[in-house]
What does this fold into?
Amino acid sequence: MADWKQVGSEPEKELSSIGGMFELGKVKRMYDIVGLYPTKITRLLGINQERYAIKLSSPDKFSVSEILKMAYIFNIDPTLILDVIQKEMGKTIANKIEIQRKKLS
It folds into this structure.
């Protein structure tokens, strides 16, 4: 995996603290970070706060680009964010695929 740490600039401490929560496994669901610096995060992501909250509650709605941007601003490897999303969405995705399989049968 590529080195995803910020190079040439010091990451913002409060945003790095969110990254630390991912690294320590304290983020179990993406919505766990909803109240942590949402204005700053949404400005850096280029989305509004309402859309951000929607995506945190349904993390499969995050684009790859948004996940990569979050990883960069949190100063962490993007796989940490993807792991949280995968664990959170696993059953939902499996159910959606089963529904599609039944439609094809």
Q: What stands out?
A: The two ends are 39 Å apart (CA to CA). The first helix runs from residue 13 to 23. The chain has five helices and no strands. Helices lie at 13-23, 38-45, 49-57, 64-74, 78-104.
